[in-house]
Amino acid sequence: MSVEKWIIGTGFSRGIGYELAKILKDNNYKIVHMGRKRSEFEDVFVWWDLLNPISDSPFPELSKSIYGKAIVGFIHCAGVMPILQVSETNRMEKHLFWQSQAEAMRINYFSCAEIIEDILPFIMSHTDNGSQNPPFVAHLSSLSAVDPFPNLELYGATKSACLLYFKWLSYRFAFDELNCLSIHPGTVHTDMVSNVISNESSDLEVVKKYKELINNNEMLTPQAAAENIYKFLFIDIKARESAHGKLYLSDKATVYK
Ligand SMILES: NC(=O)c1ccc[n+]([C@@H]2O[C@H](COP(=O)([O-])OP(=O)(O)OC[C@H]3O[C@@H](n4cnc5c(N)ncnc54)[C@H](OP(=O)(O)O)[C@@H]3O)[C@@H](O)[C@H]2O)c1
């Protein structure tokens, strides 16, 4: 009898994560999804607003759900783009700007690190998952973590923080113990991009760039981005080894140098 292989993840309700969960389901993986809204693909749903502090963590519920399961990996697909422009004069707008930076830091970095540190013992327990490959932890990073496009510097700061956390993890664990992966999916036409176009000033460089990519049909679909990520995580295992602790550009199938 084949062993059930489990993936734990966030951000499966929309965008790239939703499409990835669909592919995982099609390939017979079982899914534990932590988030605010269900996707249609999870086998276990643990409600958690990633903005909540660790003291409110649903860890007892999560640990009951994953105890004894063969966990293949964890992937943090959840993420937000903070407000991009700060008002120099309006105190209320300034306050909202910095609140949005703090929330982005929590969702894009702290919540990911907190979940990983909590579930590490379960992932490392080596419950036979029938896989030849080492277990992995991964997050959807961004090129902005290392080389931000104008206006994406502070969003990039949240992704840099998480990238450095993954680098630190890769020093704690060798590739064949726990493969630590930061994945830039490319520029992908999801709600995140649409919201920047509709909520931010049309004068911003990034808004112009997003519109240009869409007009030229050069922006990835969430389905195409998810297929690249699936290939990297589950098929192209050699690439996984070389990406341990580094930033992997899944749209170009190469490690960032
Ligand atoms: N799109 C791009 O071009 C691009 C490029 C580079 C990197 N990325 C990264 O890829 C990841 C996915 O992006 P996307 O474009 O697919 O974004 P998206 O369509 O906006 O989806 C964001 C996901 O994050 C979840 N999320 C946000 N806030 C949450 C919270 N407080 N608690 C729980 N879940 C929360 C959302 O769940 P709800 O439905 O509950 O809101 C949703 O599932 C992000 O980390 C993003 O930074 C995207």
UniProtKB/TrEMBL annotation:
InterPro entries: NAD(P)-bd_dom_sf, SDR_fam. It comes from the Bacteria. Keywords: Oxidoreductase. Pfam families: adh_short_C2. One of its GO terms (molecular function) is oxidoreductase activity. GO terms for cellular component: membrane. Belongs to the short-chain dehydrogenases/reductases (SDR) family. This is Short-chain dehydrogenase. It comes from Fluviispira sanaruensis.
